[in-house]
Amino acid sequence: MNLEGRCYCGEIRYAADGDPLLKAQCHCRECQYISGGAPNLFMVMPASGFRYTQGTPKTFSRSDLERPVTREFCATCGTHLVTRRPDLPAHLILKIGTLDDPTVFAPKIAIFTVDKQPYHHIADGLPAFERMPPRG
Asked: For residue 74, what are the domain limits?
């Protein structure tokens, strides 16, 4: 899969090559904060296939967390593009709303539904988990 995307103002562009490890929607409170209230729609992609083709993002990590993630965003318009987790160094979390063609995305699971708000929608038949699915 060869994907391209950008921030809202167009100052930052990226290319992402490779097959997604996961396509999901997350309803946890942290994702609600960073999305402005909606579930977070994302794909876990190989980090080796990702590159910024225009501009350089700003980064943010919370210093009060034991294992903080790093969020990459446009300093001009604030668009959150990517999240990097220290426990997944070979992958990154790509925000669906930043894709030039977001129709390539269809979530395969919904996670952290324990925090789901009444106005969040989970499609009928989509596997949903209170936290994470069992590993197996």
From this structure: 2-115
Q: pLDDT digits over 33-51, tens only? A: 988 899 999 999 999 999 9
The model's pLDDT over 82-124, given as tens digits with 9 standing for 90+, comes to 999 999 999 999 999 999 999 999 999 999 999 999 999 999 9
Task: Kindly state whether residue 56 falls inside one of the protein's structural domains.
Answer: yes
Specify whether the CB–CB gap between 3 and 19 falls below 8 A.
no
Contacts of 18 (CB under 8 A, 6+ apart): 1, 45, 46, 48, 49
**Domain annotation covers residue 58:** yes
Distance between alpha carbon 112 and the CA centroid of its chain, in Å?
Answer: 14
CATH for 10? 2.170.150.70
State residue 72 phi and psi, 5-degree precision: -110, 130
Which tokens in the block code for residue 92? 């990154």
Nearest to 79 by CA among 5, 131, 1: 5
